[in-house]
Amino acid sequence: VKGQGKNNFIIFNKSIENKTLERRLLENALRKAIKKQEFYLEYQPKLNISTNEIIGMEALVRWNHPDLGTIPPVKFISLAESTGLIIPLGEWILRESCRQTKEWQEKGYPQLRVSVNVSVRQFEDPYFIEKIKRILHEIGLDPHWLEIELTESVFADLKHTVPILEGIRNLGIHISVDDFGTGYSSLSYIKHLPIDTLKVDQSFIKDVHLNHQSKAIVSAVIHLAETIGLNVIAEGIETLEHVEALSKDGLKFGQGYFYSRPLRCEAFEEFVTNNASL
Ligand code: C2E
Ligand code: CA
Ligand code: CA
Ligand code: CA
């Protein structure tokens, strides 16, 4: 906004218009950022909590804005979703995380599975499976090393969802239900879904050592998963108390600041190297 336009804007400024302008500015910035590739990924290790062995990593996107610095995903993912920009951005995220995983394999690091967050909008894209196939083929990554993390909102329309999930899984890609326990899914239909892993939401982990309800929910999810043959991972493990409470409940896998924050590539390589020599 320049000169006269800016003054006009100030005169007619109302908070709602302000919001709209802010949104539009951010949307334009986001559009440019995708063209200029201002994004990068961090990787947070996932571990076996009884052996402390790394089993994989979650890719998490960050926006490196030239003036504003690093912008976290909570500030732009929902806008990317509502504007449809998540489609090109999500494709870049998938390609980059597969490329990096392949690079680590070729450099001789332990073979690890990469988990990529996929938004409902991407999942509903009719070309989604084709895009994943093309990316894996281009990069030469075995689909076995890719996992996608979907939130429960994807499961609102099962008739539509199940065939897509099956298509993805038939490729050999793993599927994990993110933020499990916070959303819509009822435990009863989980057994009908072609999925591999339940990821217990961090809100339940936060007070698992203090709060009976959280503990009951976490225990129930662990035992349910065991019964129907799914893996369980806990996210947001921050303290030794969390680890101890979860181990007692028979949890096998976890991730969180207690083990490591999400790391840039070089720092992740260092983490993996140190972990391997434990
Ligand atoms: P999420 O998928 O549930 O990711 C977990 C978030 O918790 C991440 O925040 C991670 O950095 C943070 N976290 C990890 N360990 C701990 C811990 O011990 N304690 C606490 N308090 N937090 C922890 P981040 O990276 O800011 O991402 C926030 C959300 O943004 C993600 O939630 C996900 O919904 C979305 N997001 C991030 N990256 C992507 C992406 O590449 N694609 C899409 N579609 N969404 C993404
Ligand atoms: Ca996730
Ligand atoms: Ca989550
Ligand atoms: Ca979340």
From TrEMBL:
The lineage of its organism: Bacteria, Bacillati, Bacillota, Bacilli, Bacillales. This is Signal peptide protein. It comes from the Bacteria. Residues 23-276 form the EAL domain.
